[in-house]
Amino acid sequence: MKFKILLFLCLCIKLAIAQTKPTFEEEKKAIAYSLLTEAIAKNDSIKMADGYYEMGKYEAGIGNYISGNAWYRKALPIYKKQKRYFEYGRIYQRMAENEAARKDYKQVGIFSDSAVAIFKKYDLAKGIISNYLFTCDLNYKHLKKTPSEVLRNFDKMLVYAKNNGLEVEHTFLHQMKGYILQESNPAEALKSFELSKTYMKKFGFERLYTGLNAAMAVCYARMGQPSKARELLKDNPHATYSLQSDKFMSYRVQRNLAEIEIFKAEKNWEKAFEKQAEYIDLQNEIHTSEENRLSSLRSLVDVSALSKSQERELLLQSQLLQSNKRLLNILIVVGFMFLMLLVLLFFQNSKNQKLAQKYLNISHKNELLIKEQSHRVKNNLQVISSLIGLQKNRLKNKEIQDSLEEMQGRISVMSVLQQLFYESNDSVKIKIGDYFEQILNKTEVIFNKPVERFFSVENALIDPDLAIHLGIIFNELLTNSFKYAFGFENLQPKVSVSFFIKNGEFYFEYKDNGSNANLLIFEKEFYTKSQSFGLCLIRLKSSELAGDYSFAYENGLKFKLKCIYHEAKSLNS
């Protein structure tokens, strides 16, 4: 009787002590509160992010995955700004784990891909191994792939961890392998758990024995050794179990599963059924209570930690506002300078427009002056030509009359050029077709003899320098024709003129229908060797144009001239 009373007192004391010890999830919450409090006190954004991360772990640990991701998201921008890329990628990894628990596999893929991209970009081996562990768990538990498919790259990952000095990760790699083989090959799973336990001891992770012992108990039970399984469940010195406080803990679920397998191994079907029902009720309670727990726990956090966190956020927002204010001031200064620049450009543009109008007026005035000058020069040349004509008519000497007629023709070439300048809107170009027509008209008047004309002239605009050269050559050829080709019973005098520009060259051809080829004037070498002033002038002007020219007699005089056009443009008349 005394022994029973003593045993009862011991149990009561143990229960009282157990109730005063914090649970694993409560420790997470305490760590998170401590970090947030310290961050607010020290104005430390890194600790603030760590506090958010721990709060996310706590919420996820008790089944509030939505709230957990909300805390994780608050930590994301801080880690990124501080260039803590492992923590930055780890946040995405945790969010993927939460979405996997909620069975939102689309979001799982997005978050997991983001995490592995960050880890690979910055060559973070620990993060890559962590993502591998998560991917294996996802493929096995949620996507229902076979153990062989899931563990295909397991050995490579062990070598990768060792090569990168991360042998500590063997703890979790072997643990993950054990969980995957737990159903299909419990003996092999037990070996992996034992290896994991060895690494836990080596690296000081004894507190993780709790969950591992429960998993190993499941293996022993499935291998038909329920007694060893029960010993492992009792061998949990680091776990404090309370139904009310720990009903959402992962260990609670693991222990429940182990007890089901033990009762099955002992063929105690009634107890196994009771544990199975308890396990189902527990799962249902977890899912149905998530939103209620989320609301109540967030309210609690608002009272203790979030109020201070909000003060910190307000301080950060105040700093951001000050930064934005400085930026706004800079933008105002830049905008004012831009406005001043626009004003200056406006006034400069107005000034330029006035100058342009002034120059335009001067240009118009100069053009009028040039036209007036051309008109006066033309009139003076006409007066000179008329005076020469009057003098010619009073002379009896035929040779002098012929010389005066030739002079009149040469003056008419310049007079026609000035007339075209006066009549044209373009003061720097001459229409060659009109020019040839008027020279022929003047020559007909001087010699008082009409001729039949055939013009094949491209009415192109050419430079005055070239026009005066061609005009002189054309006038001398006409004078020659009127004096010699049309004076020997030629009742139908004809003149043919051709001019065109092609491939940067111009071609000029003149032909008359002069008769009486027996005269010396039409001998073959006469035009190339004669020292008469007119023919010398034709040869001189053709040479000045750097052109190829030739004389021929085929039922009349035929003259050809070919010249590169751009070489002729800069000549002086």
Task: Summarize the structure in short.
Helix content is 73%, strand content 7%. It has 573 residues and is α+β, with helices and mostly antiparallel strands.
Would you kindly provide a written description of the structure presented here, covering whatever features stand out?
The N terminus and C terminus are likely disordered. Among the domains are: 95 residues; 141 residues, Heat Shock Protein 90, CATH 3.30.565. 73% of the residues lie in helices and 7% in strands. The chain has 573 residues and is of the alpha+beta class. The chain contains 21 helices and seven strands. It has a five-stranded mixed sheet.
Overall pLDDT score: 76
- CATH-derived topology of the domain at 428-568: Heat Shock Protein 90
Which sheet architecture does the biggest sheet show? 5 strands, mixed
SSE-based structural type? alpha+beta
Report how far the terminal alpha carbons are from each other.
147 Å
Count of DSSP H/I helices = 21
CATH architecture of the domain at 428-568: 2-Layer Sandwich
- Main β-sheet, spatial strand arrangement: 2-4-5-7-6
Rg (CA only): 56 Å
Taken from the alpha-carbon principal axes, the silhouette is: rod-shaped
- What's the total count of β strands? 7
Identify the CATH homologous superfamily of the domain at 428-568.
Answer: Histidine kinase-like ATPase, C-terminal domain
Q: β content, as a range? A: 5-15%
Share of helical residues: over 70%
Element string (H = helix, E = strand): HHHHHHHHHHHHHHHHEHEEHEEHHEEH
Detail the poorly predicted runs: 1-22, 237-249, 567-573
The level-1 CATH class of the domain at 428-568: Alpha Beta
